[in-house]
Design brief:
By secondary structure, the chain is α/β, with parallel strands linked by helices. The chain has helices spanning 27-37, 46-52, 68-78, 90-96, and strands at 4-10, 15-17, 41-45, 59-63, 84-86, 102-107, 116-117. Bound molecules: NADP nicotinamide-adenine-dinucleotide phosphate. Belongs to the dihydrofolate reductase family. InterPro entries: DHFR, DHFR-like_dom_sf, DHFR_dom.
């Protein structure tokens, strides 16, 4: 079975994005993201993929609204053995959440503004956005 993991950095109130980018400057977390995802297949939403660009050492799979199952099946077929990292943003996390078996979350000590929020990790969890 393909190993699907979620990776995110989340502010104190669930913030994840601001004006199409990360709300903070955290080089250490970017290094962590790289170390975790190297060798894997990284699924990113259209907006995130546009902002991030190429990721050396990883297969970047942009999500353009297609069926998540079809994307996971395609990665399993074309890149067997690679861990699949669901790397955001919010829309992408939400669409792939039911396939995720492991979540790697960095809690960032950030209390500033955001316009994109982490969706709930499991059914019944309080939505971060509602908790603002
Ligand atoms: N903190 C973290 O760990 C982390 C990780 C990743 C991203 N982020 C942040 O999350 C934010 C982005 O998240 P998001 O939920 O807005 O988007 P996203 O999940 O990155 O991308 C999905 C969105 O892209 C748009 N899209 C899809 N196909 C498109 C196409 N062909 N042409 C134009 N637009 C298309 C759609 O927008 P519409 O629904 O409007 O059509 C869709 O909802 C950014 O600020 C990013 O920096 C944070």
């Amino acid at each position: 079975m393909i190993d699907v993991r979620l990776i995110a950095a989340v502010g104190r109130r669930g913030q994840i994005g601001l004006a199409g980018r990360l709300p903070w400057h955290e080089p250490e977390d970017l290094a962590w993201f790289k170390a975790q995802t190297l060798g894997g297949a990284v699924v990113m939403g259209f907006r995130t993929a546009h902002a991030v660009g190429a990721l050396p050492g990883r297969v970047v799979v942009p999500w353009l609204g297609d069926d998540p199952q079809a994307i996971i099946d395609r990665i399993a077929r074309e890149h067997p053995g690679r861990i699949v990292w669901i790397a955001g943003g919010a829309k992408t996390y939400a669409h792939f959440m039911s396939y995720v078996r492991r979540a790697v979350i960095t809690l960032v000590d950030y209390d500033g503004p955001a316009d994109v929020w982490m969706p709930p990790l499991w059914e019944g969890a309080q939505c971060w956005e509602d908790a603002r």
